[in-house]
Amino acid sequence: xxxxxxxxxxxxxxxxxxxxxxxxxxxxxxxxxxxxxxxxxxxxxxxxxxxxxxxxxxxxxxxxxxxxxxxxxxxxxxxxxxxxxxxxxxxxxxxxxxxxxxxxxxxxxxxxxxxxxxxxxxxxxxxxxxxxxxxxxxxxxxxxxxxxxxxxxxxxxxxxxxxxxxxxxxxxxxxxxxxxxxxxxxxxxxxxxxxxxxxxxxxxxxxxxx
Length: 210
Ligand SMILES: CC(C)(COP(=O)(O)OP(=O)(O)OC[C@H]1O[C@@H](n2cnc3c(N)ncnc32)[C@H](O)[C@@H]1OP(=O)(O)O)[C@@H](O)C(=O)NCCC(=O)NCCS
Hints:
The chain is α+β, with helices and mostly antiparallel strands. Helix content is 34%, strand content 29%.
């Protein structure tokens, strides 16, 4: 659900975070790169500015309702650069992780994937994503997210990854089910859309059973 969420993870003090991370050698691999077929999933960088802006701009209309932060912070290249700098800084403090799915042969940006609302005490995180209309509906997102989830469970050590979506978003619900998430329930009045409507969201969760 949504893109960048400005809500910070309020659960840990900086001290306890440091302890968790220094104990976790696995965490040193957080700059993950996943290669499959002709694609790569890698961290989004500030240097991706133009391709990232184009991806958002091509999909702006369909992102409007549920990617409020992204749409409002990417109106032009200058604003988008500030936004990317902010996202990257959040990654450095282990609060937020943005990734991009890229076609290796054309360098086209296919999809954006992020980990947000991280709670390192469990540890658990929310996953969000959007796919360029040109590449959506072909099963590619399902494949990428499945690989991404496996990698995140293994390398970040999450016990749980969850996804939130609106009842009207059938592709997201199908995606969640095809990626091994189970429907956990509906949380009422959970999200304010760009138009200001406060809506209920369906929560899907996938546990790390290993
Ligand atoms: C949700 C989203 C990421 C799914 O990506 P995708 O590329 O369509 O995913 P896939 O191609 O892997 O398809 C997943 C399933 O959804 C189905 N699906 C895709 N588009 C659909 C549509 N418009 N209506 C109904 N089902 C749809 C696919 O058919 C597939 O099911 P199937 O394998 O049974 O055919 C994409 O639709 C999107 O970017 N939406 C806008 C942003 C968004 O809502 N993100 C989700 C926030 S949690």
